[in-house]
């Protein structure tokens, strides 16, 4: 790939990333398969649920997911999945930092275990606390432009609105709200959750999202590595199109022979 | 509104009629829909739906993979005590069964937990009979608090309590509560539970809601198959789960599908749930509840368990012992009989001929899958799933 066709790098909290695809690590059939899919995707940011990891420093062989993620190759982004309120999320984030993980946190607080929809009140409380403690905070939110702005005001490094509920594969059901979030954003917008097909990821990037986060669609695919490459290509295509600029949609056909052409006739 | 009033108003006869005699077009319609009702669930339990089992299985598998991924979580039961004040005709721990009983000390429980941790388990279910003298609320709290320090996930399966009595257990670190209604048929329930506080059907039925109010975040329910008509039980369990999903919105609901196993007292099942029907039942649960955890224990034999895993099961036990002290031999010196709440020491003849520490406590039932935890985990891998031991962190329930 020549430099001329490279996308502008993604920058989060002063750190630059060549890939705009962030990967989750849940639901894979084996840690080896997960490791291979991460490599195939070209991702540079990988998020891990802290509840799956060993934070005791004892190198627990029965909770060794972190051993399959090369910290030299990826930014390991711990997430607080499982936390139902701000106190639990803050506790988990501190524990991760104490265990030597990067002081970055994907803040996920979803008290409803069915749809895993984020609690905006607790997320704001936790974000404020963690930013104050020096964490780089990437909050998972519903596609609500107001909570997105409130979080930016307390100093989060990104906002991560959902396209549709986690694991639902339903794509971007929140398009109009995400458009507003992007329009008003002063930090990168990462569309997280619900992206079930590469076309969904491309759509998010075309809308102007700075990055997307994908997990289920890759993890449960028949061939996760190949699906990871498909998402990589889609993210690149969507970003290219966004950077070039996509022509506006029109309500009617645009004839090649304009209806007003007669005015130019001599 | 508690589930009791909803349960009393459940049009069970009509639903059961569907479950027994749904026709082919109804089955097709219930299979086709994505937002299924209780009537659809009943339809999927029908003999007509049994003819479409392969199709149900494929759908159930796809849904489970989508929602839970290619992972199977593991847990182990840790029996604290087999003392009980109830008489339940089907249970080995019934108070009138002259079995060998023991209640482990907190230190012994720590040792049992350590043995399970060595095998890989990071998610333990503490099980105890219902006996306020031996298994007091304070004792349970101490057990939870002791294990919370060493085990990421601790759940309980103990006699029902008041909400206020549950709170200290949650504060001590317990995250889940399992309580099976055993049977949702009031008449059968009454006939099976001949003495003790468990006779109160409604009190038991409302237990998951009290647990949720106290802060438990995983709620396990189920019927014990072998007591009443399986289709009727399944419909009631589904109605119960639907109620909990609506009212206890912060809880992860799990459904277990235990079938009666041989135990002390030699109770024979009153009804049958065949292997084939069990497959159908698990698929129907999954199609009805895409996000509900489905639990399978070592009550079932290895071959059936291996076959059921890819169809919708999300949580399995392995290498289980159903007697207190089963993992380390803890408590062997203290086993006794209990008569009218009093300890009766074993006679010399009962100790005679036993080498070592003495006789061990009696189990609740005999398990059928006797493979070790490591063997089960290996099999899970062979089936294309990751065995997940740790899916919780103590920091979440500190």
Describe the biggest sheet of chain A?
Answer: 5 strands, parallel
Which outline of chain B best applies?
globular
What is the rounded Rg of chain A?
A: 20 Å
Strand order of the largest sheet of chain B: 1-3-4-5-7-8-9-10
| Total count of strands of chain B | 13
Pair of chains with the largest interface and how many residues each contributes: A-B, 31 and 30 residues
Oligomeric form: heterodimer
Strand content of chain A: 5-15%
Helix content of chain A: 25-40%
The Cα radius of gyration of chain B reads 21 Å
The level of helicity of chain B is 40-55%
Number of strands of chain A: 10
Based on secondary structure, the structural category of chain A is alpha/beta
Q: Find the CATH topology of chain A.
A: TIM Barrel
User: How many distinct folded domains of chain A?
Assistant: 1
What is the average per-residue confidence, as pLDDT of chain B, rounded to a whole number? 92
Strand order within the widest beta sheet of chain A: 5-4-3-10-9
> Into which percentage range does the β-strand content of chain B fall?
5-15%
Under CATH at level 1, the class of chain B stands as Alpha Beta
Task: Point out poorly predicted stretches of chain B.
Answer: none
Shape of chain A: globular
């Amino acid at each position: 790939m020549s430099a001329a066709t490279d996308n502008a790098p993604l920058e989060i909290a002063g750190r630059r990333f060549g890939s705009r695809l962030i990967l989750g690590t849940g639901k894979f059939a084996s840690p080896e398969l997960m490791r291979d899919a991460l490599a195939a995707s070209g991702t540079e940011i990988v998020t891990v649920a802290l509840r799956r990891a060993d934070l005791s420093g004892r190198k627990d062989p029965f909770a060794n997911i972190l051993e399959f993620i090369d910290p030299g190759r990826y930014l390991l982004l711990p997430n607080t999945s499982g936390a139902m309120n701000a106190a639990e999320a803050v506790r988990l984030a501190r524990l991760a930092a104490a265990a030597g993980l990067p002081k970055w946190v994907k803040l996920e607080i979803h008290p409803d275990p069915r749809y895993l929809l984020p609690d905006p009140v607790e997320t704001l409380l936790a974000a404020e606390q963690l930013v104050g403690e020096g964490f780089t905070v990437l909050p998972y939110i519903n596609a609500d432009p107001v909570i997105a702005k409130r979080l930016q005001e307390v100093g989060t490094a990104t906002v991560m609105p959902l396209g549709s509920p986690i694991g639902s594969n339903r794509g971007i059901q929140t398009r109009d709200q995400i458009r507003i979030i992007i329009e008003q954003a002063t930090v990168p917008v990462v569309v997280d959750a619900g992206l079930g097909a590469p076309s969904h990821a491309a759509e998010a990037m075309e809308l102007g999202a700075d990055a997307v986060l994908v997990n289920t669609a890759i993890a449960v695919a028949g061939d996760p590595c190949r699906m990871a490459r498909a998402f990589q290509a889609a993210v690149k295509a969507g970003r290219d199109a966004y950077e070039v600029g996509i022509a506006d949609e029109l309500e009617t056909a645009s004839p090649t022979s304009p209806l007003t052409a007669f005015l130019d006739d001599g | 509104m508690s589930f009791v009033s909803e349960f009393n108003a459940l049009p069970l006869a009509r639903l059961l009629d569907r479950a027994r005699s749904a026709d082919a077009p109804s089955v097709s319609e219930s299979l086709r829909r994505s937002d299924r009702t209780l009537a659809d669930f009943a339809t999927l339990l029908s003999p007509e739906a049994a003819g479409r089992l392969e199709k149900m299985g494929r759908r159930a598998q796809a849904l489970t993979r989508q929602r839970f991924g290619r992972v199977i979580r593991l847990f182990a039961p840790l029996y604290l005590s087999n003392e009980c004040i109830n008489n339940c005709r089907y249970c080995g721990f019934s108070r009138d069964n002259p079995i060998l009983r023991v209640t482990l000390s907190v230190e012994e429980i720590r040792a049992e937990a350590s043995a399970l941790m060595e095998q890989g388990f990071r998610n333990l279910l503490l099980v105890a009979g219902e006996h306020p003298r031996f298994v007091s609320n304070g004792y349970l709290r101490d057990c939870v608090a002791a294990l919370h320090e060493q085990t990421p996930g601790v759940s309980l399966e103990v006699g029902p309590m008041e909400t206020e009595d549950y709170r200290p257990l949650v504060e001590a670190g317990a995250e889940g509560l399992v309580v099976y209604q055993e049977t949702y048929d009031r008449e059968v329930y009454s006939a099976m539970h001949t003495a003790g506080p468990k006779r109160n059907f409604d009190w038991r039925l409302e237990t998951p809601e009290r647990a949720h109010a106290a802060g438990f975040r995983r709620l396990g329910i189920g019927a014990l198959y072998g007591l009443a008509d399986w289709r009727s039980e399944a419909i009631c369990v589904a109605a119960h789960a639907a109620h909990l999903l609506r009212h206890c919105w912060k809880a992860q609901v799990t459904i277990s599908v235990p079938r009666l196993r041989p135990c002390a007292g030699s109770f024979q099942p009153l009804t049958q749930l065949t292997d084939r029907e069990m497959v159908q039942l698990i698929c129907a649960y999954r199609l009805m509840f895409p996000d509900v955890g489905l639990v399978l224990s070592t009550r079932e034999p290895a071959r059936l368990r291996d076959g059921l895993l890819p169809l919708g099961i999300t949580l399995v036990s392995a290498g289980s012992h159903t007697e207190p002290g089963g993992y380390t031999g803890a408590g062997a010196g203290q086993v006794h009989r209990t008569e009218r709440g009093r300890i009766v020491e074993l006679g010399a003849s009962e100790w005679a001929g036993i080498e070592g520490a003495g006789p061990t406590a009696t189990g609740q039932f005999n398990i059928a899958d006797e493979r070790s935890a490591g063997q089960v985990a290996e099999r899970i891998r062979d089936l294309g799933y990751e065995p997940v031991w740790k899916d919780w962190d103590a920091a979440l329930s500190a």
